[in-house]
Design goal:
Layout (H helix, E strand, L loop, with lengths): L10 E4 L2 E4 L15 H5 L4 E5 L6 E7 L7 E4 L5 H9 L11 H5 L26 H15 L3 E2 L3 H9 L8 H4 L31 E5 L5 E5 L10 E7 L24 E2 L3 E2 L18
Parallel strand pairs: 7-10
Antiparallel strand pairs: 1-2, 2-3, 3-4, 4-5, 5-11, 6-11, 7-8, 8-9
Amino acid sequence: MWVRAVSLTAFALIAGVAWRSTPRSDAAPHGDDPPASETLAPRVAFTQAIAGTTLSIDFVPVTLADGRPLWMSRTEIPWEVLDVCVYGFDQVDGKSESVKADAVTRPTKPYIATDRGFGHAGWPANSVSFKNAVTFCEWLSAKSGCAYRLPREAEWIEACARSGVTVQSAPDFAWFEGNSGGTTHRVGSKRADAQGIHDLWGNLAEWCVLPDGRGAVFGGSYRDSAAEIGCASRHADTPRWNQSDPQMPKSIWWLADAGWIGFRVVCDAPPNKSAVTPSKPAAPK
């Protein structure tokens, strides 16, 4: 038997990871045994710090039908976090604390204002190619020691389906053609969905990995209608998204014609917290 989840928040910090216990909407009924995966990886939110900076990424547990654990970034990756990877803001004299991260071939610096003037710090990184998003995951994995990646197609669709968002409720949860003013908006500025995630619907369409390893974007963006965003919105990668790039060869990192594309990241197993001693729980809210 196990204890029902309670409305307490607790924090612990080790190796740049802050752990936060959260109430679970899928807690087992009283008297039932927990899912097998629950005994292996407790479903708690955590924050991954970016070493060498004051920045971090929040991750929340996502419920999947097969019981497999998955943690998804609470928001789309914002510019200031991607900038660390692109510009080496974690480095001093070309070196950071991680030799492995320094060995990752980072994206080249963009030759245009890829944020399109929408906003930068706090705004979702846009105009990002599939290779750029995959490379960010490789860099973050090497830097943190935790295996981060892009969501698989089926994972993203299931997380979206469990969001509780509908076309009718979209104005409360999403930025789309009807309320965006033709621009992206600060990450997390709309309500979080049923799993604590922001902007699976709208703001930016997000890179996912298809079964054959290619990329496609899901969820729709700030430029789509309310009926066009959400779980069924899917567009496969295409050279048209970078057709106007004047460089020869064209950039493999940035999309000159797709300022509506960004990404978020996931992990299957968060950093080990076996040595963590939780701090005093906060008072119930």
